[in-house]
Amino acid sequence: MKSYHYILLLFFSLLAACHVEEKISEENQNVLEYVNPFIGTDGHGHTFPGAAVPFGMVQLSPDTHLAGWDWCSGYHYTDSSIIGFSHTHLSGTGRSDLMDVLLMPTTGTTKVVPGTRENPDGGYRSRFSHDEEWASPGYYKVKLRDYDILAELTVTPRCGFHKYTFPKTRDAHILLDLFHHYSTDSVKESSLRIQDNQTLTGMRRSKGWGEPGEKYWSNQQLFFVVRFSKPFNSCDLFIDNQIVADSCMEANGRNLKVILNYETGEREAIFVKVGISSVSIENAILNLDAEIPAWDFDGTVARARSSWNQKLSQIQIDASEEEKTKIYTAMYHSFLAPYLFSDINNEYWGFDKQVHKTTGSKHYTVMSLWDTFRAVHPLFTLFAPEVVNDIVASMLRQYDEYGLLPVWPLWGSETNCMIGYHAIPVIVDAYLKGFRDFDVEKAYQAMKTSAMQDDFGINYLKKYGYIPYDKYNKSVATALEYCYDDWCIARLAKELGKTDDYHYFMKQAASYSTYFDKEYKLMNGVSSTGKFRRPFDPFYSSYGECDWVEGNSWQYSFFVPHDVQGLINLFGSNQEFVNALDTLFGIHSHVSGEDVPLDISGFIGQYVHGNEPSH
Question: Within 13 Å and on the Cβ side, how many CA atoms surround 376?
Fold first, then answer.
């Protein structure tokens, strides 16, 4: 999966120019001018420009298109029209999801379908220009040209706050579209109730890209409350894009929309507050009442920006203006996820599809661990220590409710996306750095349970001592990731005095040598009969049958971070290892295969700065 790691790595590559201070002088605190939320919204970056706070549940951002890999975040810089503003998004991922509770202000004739990029006039979407668009941490604004409306957005951890400045008109509208989703086939059911002429409530359940199956069906559940600063004159409720009776105050179905009708004066602002929850409408109301009690939009913007300024001001940078923008924007993207998932009363919706309540700690979701365990989580121990214990506790709650530690949890569902059991290095890194406000013994048992299961190739690892390529696809990449994870278990076993486990997992961690093909001096697939793959193409990569995941043998041959000397010994000498590294960076950048993964990017020879596992 693609992640924001490729921007984060630039931060690490320039970190030598930085220094950390416990106290930051006043003149150096305004770092937000160096954050550009539009970085990553072009190309294959998959980021969004909208408003968020550090680790917040809500990411309130414009959506410009839904279909296609480059629209995983709902927004792409090449687009020239906006569908509307939804409250949940993913940043930097290689899959799309969420985009819940879309609002769109309009004027003139009402429309209930969004239209297309090619024909914006066919729906309620509006053209816009980047010259009239601006974003900074915690705040976003854009001029909707088709309606002469200025839309401004800000957020709190669990709520969104909109400000729509209308022209003078008798035909002003605000549309709520519950059918808006990256895949409308995934919308399973919605409900909507018009409580009064200033309040809407409802819910939506959708099936995202979490794992299938009856027990852990990816039923993404979101409840909401929407409040308007100005009472609407009338409203039109639609089911399957057909208007229903005027007297209807509530509806249920897959495709629900409502249009609220206003008369506005010149430059009249209508404010909209939205609270969300994974648990209930009542909790969404609690969240909204607690976090945005008044109609103070500017004050909410100030608090959101202050939260970012406090987070990003932890470092001072002696660098050029361009490098400051790169570094601070990288830090900004790093602190968008994981997402807060518990409500103001500490309730959250668990992996067992039941409501749970924490004992004071916060519960988090959206952990793309294959992307983040290598660099982002260690970064948190330095610059976001307040979330580290809660993240580990969240992982252990998933273990209680689901039976295994997280792989890639998303909104109360496990996607089991990508390889490895990389919650383990996150937990061990935290423990060894002194973060221990969690049940350490439970954490250790959870690690063993994940490492000793019989799925995801581990059954072959137990049987053969390695994962044969003719038994399990993506065998070598998967096995090398397990080697590092098992070494992490061994480290904690040693700390806890579990000697037998220490020796077992150290042996597992050393099995990387099985895949080292001495003829080529690169990692290679091994069959169930113990033979290396022949013919062998170290440049080959594919989404289909392949020994590698989003990479090839060149990238994975150096992924032995836990035993660098052991890897050097396989090459034969320090000089031969140095020669191999020189070749890695100096060889051509061609990758063979019919469907080379798009995530493989940022080539320096065969080193791939734009994706794991190179970094």
Answer: 29
